């Protein structure tokens, strides 16, 4: 069997950064009695009449995910992938008589999939708990599915998703769908927090979620939060601005980066809030720490310099209160603020590598189903610790052995070979 392509897919292990050439033989599952993704898909309800039904729903969803993992994003590309790989697919799925699905039928089947049921299957398959993420901070943010926009004049009615993604692992732990205006994200996130263990985790949030109800939910459940404060909360914004301008910070930290022709300096300053008085509606949010972040960016060639200041509030209490001494808590908060924007890296991969914004779908549910399957593809590839996401996809596309090995290792498929 062949090796991974120049280390594009690294040594397997949750949270590892090391990436080396790795024999495919080492990836084969050890035979442990586990539930496989294909089996969970098989338990889903299928609204189609059994008479004349030629393709199992589980097979269609699984091979569509495999096509996405191999860089096939548009429905026509997915259809051609299934057609061209049908002999191999018959073998690895132990379906000797299955025929390629037609181009016309593929989107129809995707249209009728129950989103809630598929999402539940995906959450069960990856089954991450707050106890086994080792205190990892999780970013919660929304994203527009631009491929579902059919009328630019009514773009606010397009489909959206909300995802919860680990800062370090960049695994997507939860996904929720949204329809309508951006403001619906607030309600969706509150429901997500209450329905899952996220309310007990460490989460970073954008300014849209700087409201008492959301922050109280996290704080009262024992979770930790960092949320940016902007002018949508004018009283807090003014109060924190005055504090950052007039008060002496009890700690600070600074980073300097030189990348892509830009020199960026970030300084975080920390202020305790325990003895501050806030409006009664914030009482259960338990504000403990203000972090003021000053960012100075210089475009080296153009000699252009920009400066901006942003404010973040957290219910994490500072340690020690000793000026000029950087504590582990301060370092953790500063790093979490920076890494919240790793969610944008995930969005970039979804849009540039998997063409999420460019795959046009006439049916909104089809767009949401394909988005869920992209999440399965991304999470599975992430587990291989790729050096380069595009190279990893190329490896999966170029070698049936490599793709099969990964699918078996991570219990996507059961071995029939």
TrEMBL record:
<feature type="domain" description="H repeat-associated protein N-terminal">
    <location>
        <begin position="39"/>
        <end position="124"/>
    </location>
</feature>
<protein>
    <recommendedName>
        <fullName>H repeat-associated protein N-terminal domain-containing protein</fullName>
    </recommendedName>
</protein>
<dbReference type="InterPro" id="IPR051698">
    <property type="entry name" value="Transposase_11-like"/>
</dbReference>
<dbReference type="InterPro" id="IPR032806">
    <property type="entry name" value="YbfD_N"/>
</dbReference>
<dbReference type="Pfam" id="PF13808">
    <property type="entry name" value="DDE_Tnp_1_assoc"/>
</dbReference>
<dbReference type="InterPro" id="IPR047647">
    <property type="entry name" value="ISAs1_transpos"/>
</dbReference>
């Amino acid at each position: 069997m062949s090796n991974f392509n120049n280390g594009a897919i690294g040594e397997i292990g949750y949270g590892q950064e090391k990436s080396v050439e790795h024999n495919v033989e080492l990836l084969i599952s050890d035979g442990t009695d586990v539930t496989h993704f294909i089996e969970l898909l098989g338990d889903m309800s299928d609204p189609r009449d059994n008479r004349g039904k030629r393709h199992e729903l589980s097979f269609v969803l699984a091979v569509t995910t495999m096509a996405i993992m191999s860089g096939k994003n548009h429905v026509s590309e997915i259809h051609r992938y299934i057609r061209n790989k049908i002999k191999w697919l018959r073998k690895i799925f132990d379906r000797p008589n299955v025929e390629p699905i037609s181009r016309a039928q593929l989107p129809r089947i995707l249209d009728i999939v129950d989103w809630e049921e598929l999402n539940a299957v995906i959450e069960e398959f990856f089954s991450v708990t707050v106890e086994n993420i080792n205190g990892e901070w999780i970013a919660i943010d929304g994203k527009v599915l631009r491929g579902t926009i059919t009328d630019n004049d009514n773009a606010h009615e397009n489909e959206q998703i909300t995802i919860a993604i680990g800062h370090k692992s960049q695994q997507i732990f939860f996904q929720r769908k949204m329809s309508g205006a951006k403001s619906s994200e607030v309600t969706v996130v509150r429901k997500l927090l209450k329905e899952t263990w996220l309310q007990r985790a460490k989460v970073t949030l954008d300014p849209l979620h700087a409201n008492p109800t959301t922050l109280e939910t996290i704080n009262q459940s024992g979770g930790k939060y960092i949320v940016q404060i902007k002018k949508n909360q004018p009283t807090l914004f003014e109060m924190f601005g005055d504090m950052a301008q007039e008060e002496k910070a009890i700690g600070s930290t600074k980073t300097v980066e030189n990348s892509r022709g830009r020199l960026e300096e970030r300084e975080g300053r920390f202020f305790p809030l325990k003895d501050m008085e806030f409006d009664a509606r914030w009482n259960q949010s338990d504000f403990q720490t203000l972090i003021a972040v000053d960012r100075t960016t210089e475009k080296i060639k153009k000699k252009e310099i920009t400066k901006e200041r942003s404010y973040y509030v957290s219910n994490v209490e500072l340690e020690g209160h000793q000026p000029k001494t950087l504590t582990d808590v301060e370092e953790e908060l500063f790093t979490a603020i920076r890494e919240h924007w790793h969610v944008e890296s995930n969005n970039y991969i979804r849009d540039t590598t998997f063409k999420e914004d460019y795959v046009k779908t006439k049916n909104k549910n089809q767009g949401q189903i394909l988005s869920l399957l992209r999440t399965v593809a991304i999470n599975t590839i992430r587990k291989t610790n790729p050096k380069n996401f595009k190279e990893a996809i190329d490896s999966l596309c170029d070698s049936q052995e490599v793709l099969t090995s990964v699918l078996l290792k991570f219990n996507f498929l059961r071995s029939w070979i």
